[in-house]
């Protein structure tokens, strides 16, 4: 319970506010110079939020808050055939439950909205039109049957399936003739010969010669919806994203995205690809594992901070791994330059231990002993009077400025109800 009280009474401060000097590499991440730090968590609502997604969201959140920036939730719902009813609401609900609510989102709104990709189709159409005019993109008239034959032939020859770029060489007259019969073909991006090198903030210098191993990718489907590659570039540009912190599975696609940025004449953000969060046996977390969804842990009564603590303690990004850190401590101690390329192994069997550590014995105490614990907590909050702490807690628990003693209310309500009421205030 102490961790919730600390979060309620002692909100996080940025390193600048704490008066701590920033290291050279840390300062280069966008804290002082250049545009404001803006990061995004951009899941697809094809399933409910699970631990892997929570970890990506958390690292984005604590990076933004450490540098006085904004944390944005954007839902990538362009694959309309795979949408799961209720998933969009679940993602935002669980971020609020975990105590890391977005500053801008579909629910909260914001200056860079809308925050659902299905409501941003005009932006993707504009970008595609610019690429077509410059010759960086072209319509593809290949039938699904032909594309399937290409795939089967490659697999038969034990090769990686790829498009053979056939429609890239069509003349203007041929394109006009085919458009008369098929006015809404998919649009492909013309991959150039040499991909730009880039410095990933976790993996260092990278370059992937995508043109030599891939065919020209589809960026806009015939239904007007973009693929991931176009949508993320367009949205990150228009939303002013300064840093992209995402899973390492997207590292090899970054060169392709940089080619899109170059073709559109836009400045790309900085990239930091986070290593995978794995089960303790080294296997990948899967949505088929029923116990990795956040609603499972919430229903089981686990503290949100226990989940945040365990997914950071098993990974990197901090000077040392330790148990019992609060969210404000995670924010102040996080250092992106300490994130390594090694996958994090998650041992969920230790979660009850984290939960007990964060819960503490407070709710099993007598009223007098609990009063003593609350007084100790107040003394640990610099520049805060005990009477003001009690007033804030009373309002959080009862909504009233006057009433019974806080310790009496806490014992009467019970630990679960106290947690829920404080969490409600934290997420409002």
Automatic annotation (TrEMBL):
Broad class of where this protein is predominantly found: mitochondrion
SUPFAM superfamilies attached to this UniProt entry: An anticodon-binding domain of class I aminoacyl-tRNA synthetases (SSF48163), Nucleotidylyl transferase (SSF52374)
Cited Gene3D superfamilies: 1.10.10.350, HUPs
Places the protein is found: Mitochondrion
Every Glutamyl/glutaminyl-tRNA synthetase class Ib catalytic domain range: 37-351
Keywords recorded for this protein, A-Z: Aminoacyl-tRNA synthetase, ATP-binding, Ligase, Nucleotide-binding, Protein biosynthesis
Example GO BP: glutamyl-tRNA aminoacylation
Keyword match Ribosomal protein: no
Molecular function terms from GO: ATP binding; glutamate-tRNA ligase activity; glutamate-tRNA(Gln) ligase activity; tRNA binding; zinc ion binding
Reactions that this protein is recorded to catalyse: tRNA(Glu) + L-glutamate + ATP = L-glutamyl-tRNA(Glu) + AMP + diphosphate; tRNA(Gln) + L-glutamate + ATP = L-glutamyl-tRNA(Gln) + AMP + diphosphate; tRNA(Glx) + L-glutamate + ATP = L-glutamyl-tRNA(Glx) + AMP + diphosphate
Gene Ontology CC: mitochondrion
EC category name: ligase
Keyword Protein biosynthesis: yes
Pfam family name, one: tRNA-synt_1c
EC number: 6.1.1.17, 6.1.1.24
Protein family according to the UniProt entry: Belongs to the class-I aminoacyl-tRNA synthetase family. Glutamate--tRNA ligase type 1 subfamily.
Protein purpose: Non-discriminating glutamyl-tRNA synthetase that catalyzes aminoacylation of both mitochondrial tRNA(Glu) and tRNA(Gln) and participates in RNA aminoacylation for mitochondrial protein translation. Attachs glutamate to tRNA(Glu) or tRNA(Gln) in a two-step reaction: glutamate is first activated by ATP to form Glu-AMP and then transferred to the acceptor end of tRNA(Glu) or tRNA(Gln). In vitro, cytoplasmic tRNA(Gln) is slightly glutamylated, but with low activity.
NCBIfam families on file: gltX_bact (TIGR00464)
The name this protein goes by in its record: Nondiscriminating glutamyl-tRNA synthetase EARS2, mitochondrial
């Amino acid at each position: 319970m102490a961790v919730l009280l600390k979060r309620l009474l002692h909100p996080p401060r940025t390193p600048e506010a704490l008066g701590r000097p920033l290291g050279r590499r840390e300062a280069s991440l966008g804290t002082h110079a250049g545009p404001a730090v803006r990061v995004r968590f951009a899941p697809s609502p094809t399933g409910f939020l699970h631990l892997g997604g929570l970890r990506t969201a958390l690292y984005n959140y604590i990076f933004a808050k450490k540098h006085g920036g904004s944390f944005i939730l954007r839902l990538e719902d362009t694959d309309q055939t795979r949408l799961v009813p209720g998933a969009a609401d679940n993602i935002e609900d669980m971020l609020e439950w975990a105590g890391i609510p977005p500053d801008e989102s579909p629910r909260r709104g914001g200056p860079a909205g809308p925050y659902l990709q299905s409501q941003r189709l005009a932006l993707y159409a504009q970008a595609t039109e610019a690429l077509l005019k410059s010759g960086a993109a072209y319509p593809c008239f290949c039938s699904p049957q032909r594309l399937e034959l290409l795939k089967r032939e490659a697999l038969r020859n034990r090769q990686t399936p790829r498009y053979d770029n056939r429609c890239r060489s069509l003349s203007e007259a041929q394109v006009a003739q085919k458009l008369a019969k098929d006015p809404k073909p998919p649009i492909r991006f013309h991959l150039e010969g040499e991909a730009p090198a880039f410095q990933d903030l976790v993996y260092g210098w990278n370059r992937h010669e995508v043109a030599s191993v891939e065919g020209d990718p589809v960026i806009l489907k015939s239904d007007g919806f973009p693929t991931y590659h176009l949508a993320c570039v367009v949205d990150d540009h228009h939303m002013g994203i300064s840093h992209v912190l995402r899973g390492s599975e997207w590292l090899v696609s970054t060169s392709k995205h940089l080619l899109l940025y170059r073709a559109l004449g836009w400045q790309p953000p900085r990239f930091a690809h986070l290593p995978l969060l794995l089960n303790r046996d080294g296997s990948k977390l899967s949505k088929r594992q029923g116990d990795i969804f956040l609603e499972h842990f919430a229903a089981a009564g686990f503290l949100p901070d226990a989940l945040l603590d365990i997914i950071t303690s098993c990974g990197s990004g901090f000077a040392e791994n330790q148990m019992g850190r609060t969210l404000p401590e995670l924010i102040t101690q996080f250092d992106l330059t300490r994130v390594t390329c090694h996958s994090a192994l998650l041992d969920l069997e230790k979660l009850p231990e984290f939960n007990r550590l964060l819960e503490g014995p407070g709710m099993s105490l007598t009223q007098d002993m609990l009063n003593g614990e609350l007084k100790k907590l107040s003394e640990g909050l610099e520049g805060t009077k005990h009477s003001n702490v009690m007033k804030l807690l009373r309002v959080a628990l009862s909504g009233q400025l006057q009433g019974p003693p806080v310790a009496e209310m806490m014992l009467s309500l019970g630990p679960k109800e106290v947690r829920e009421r404080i969490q409600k205030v934290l997420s409002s």
